[in-house]
Amino acid sequence: MKLLEKANYHLVLPIINSCSRTCPTFACSVIDGIIPGSVYVDNQKRPETILIGTNNGIYFIAGSDRNVEFNTMFLNYYRQCTKGDASRFTLFSPTSSWNHVIKELLQKETSQMVRRKYFFNEKDETTKIQQLPDGFDLVVINEKMIDASSNFNRDYYSQYWNGVSNYLKYGIGYCVVHNETVVSECTSIFVSNQYAEIDIVTQEEYAGNGFAYLLGNTFIKKCFEEGLTPAWDCDKQNVGSQKLASKLGFDRFEEYSIYIRKT
Q: Fewer C-beta neighbours within 10 Å, C or N terminus of the chain?
């Protein structure tokens, strides 16, 4: 398992493209140089197996799952990353065969979760934005809104974006504000050159007002203006997220697994 130079990230694109239906947006974002991370390969000239990781401990493994040498080196890397502390290690798997390999390698050290990657139906694209109640405003997420947020705050953007400045350079986001309080937000948890992955939250006392739907539509409209495809991922058990995804036009999905380190 060797560290690939950034100038050669394009060499892993055939593997990324071969599993595009389950490839997470963050992996593409690292390849596109939008968020910092690392790419490990079995062969620096002709990669067949890859491990893409962000600086906050999220990884995607793909390619040939029968590469015994790579799998052994990956296990050693996992041991090194998780030795002696509670460091995050969340591994995204693209296929059932990779699920089998990961279970064999990590045994009882991780918990498996099933997630769904949704695909937007462009025929259902809607640009209709309903009126907000008096006293509520739709605002682009900026530094002031980030400082006012209790959910998508500086810690959030530090974790997923390597800082607020990087998010403001590449990200997309909107929020609903009432009396200077951020009551609902829709932001890009990750962005690549092709996708913008949606993350939405509404404060409990303001739920049921249609703010998430409004923000989601606004976000989707902006994606198409920027030439990006909106992306939606959520846990299989998250029925509320699935219903909102369907309402917004995400009508197809592919299931995949993630493995979360037990602490």
A: C
Q: Where are the domains of the chain?
A: 2-118, 120-252
* Contacts with 75 (C-beta within 8 Å, 6 or more apart), sequence order: 105, 106
Pick the CATH number of 2-118 from 3.30.930.10, 3.40.50.150, 2.20.25.90, 3.40.630.110: 3.40.630.110
Least reliable range by pLDDT among 37-41, 118-122, 123-127, 159-163: 123-127
* pTM, full prediction: 0.93
Which H or E run includes 88? none
57: left (phi over 0), alpha (psi -120 to 50) or beta: left
Considering the domain delimited by 120-252, tell me its CATH architecture: 3-Layer(aba) Sandwich (3.40)
- Cα separations in angstroms, 222 against 42, 130, 144, 195, 239: 38, 16, 20, 12, 26
- Quote the pLDDT of residue 129: 53
